[in-house]
Amino acid sequence: MPEYGALKDKFGDYCLFDEPAANFTTYQAGGKAEALVKPGSREDLEWLSGWCRAASVPLRVLGRGSNVLVSDRGLPGVTALTERLSKIEISCNTITAQVGVSWDALARLSVEHGLAGLEKTSGIPGSVGGALRMNAGAFGQEAFDRLENIDGFSVSGSPVRLEKKNMTYGYRRADGLDGLIMVSAGFVFAPGDPAVLLQDRSFILAAREAKQPLDYPSAGSVFKRPQGDFASRLIDAAGLKGLKVGGAEVSSKHAGFIINVGGATAADIYALMREVRARVKEKSGVELELEQILLGEF
What we know:
Layout: H1 5-11, E1 15-20, E2 32-37, H2 42-55, E3 59-62, E4 68-70, E5 75-81, E6 88-91, E7 94-98, H3 103-112, E8 115-116, H4 128-133, E9 137-138, E10 141-142, E11 147-154, E12 159-163, E13 169-170, E14 173-174, E15 180-188, E16 190-191, H5 194-211, E17 218-221, H6 231-237, E18 244-245, E19 248-250, E20 257-260, H7 266-284, E21 293-295
Parallel strand pairs: 2-5, 3-5, 4-21
Antiparallel strand pairs: 1-2, 6-7, 7-15, 8-16, 9-10, 11-12, 11-15, 13-14, 17-20, 18-19, 19-20
Helix pairs in contact: 3-5
């Protein structure tokens, strides 16, 4: 293990060693992070990036761990969680949010202030940074719909501002973010009636609760939506609801989810992902593409 004393000196209680992924991912499974750090400001994040660069230690930045599966072998190097980067500011029809703000908090605040355009993304788990990384979306709206710009810095420490108009993005993808450590993002909204937006939000949250297995640990939709179809329909049609590997199970409530029904390892979840892909390919000829991100060695 590298000499991490400087990290402990700098971050104190916000620096943990050998922290199980169960404590920082929504799957509640996976191995240990060698060093887990929670920066509280842009300056903290820049310092951490610089330290890792100078020490030749790998750095990965995570939000709420809601779209990732961490290998049982763990994560070498430094993992930074953005949860303390949680400032959010509203001015007229714009909102600026740091990357650690929960996405649902952004959606809720926009609704409350009569700002339309992200209300249907209510209830998406994860952070602003994570949602932008993958252009998360639901019910016909996506994270990039109201995005104006992203602020951050490169791995070499140079400040970077990306304007959405200069970016390429699409369904569950946002290009040009590799090598960028995001700090905050600006969003511009259309005016809306708060009462109507609140009704829309309530409907979306109720629909999520009715259709999704929110009472078990999961990381949301496992696979991307194939062209002209739904991954959940294909999985259900292949008769895979309830299929189990160890403590991992294809949800009987929503076939697009793999849930941790108790004591699942990352290996269980990964094996079930592979089995589902293979059986759907065999049944329908469709090759499902993973939406979730695998971290570490599988």
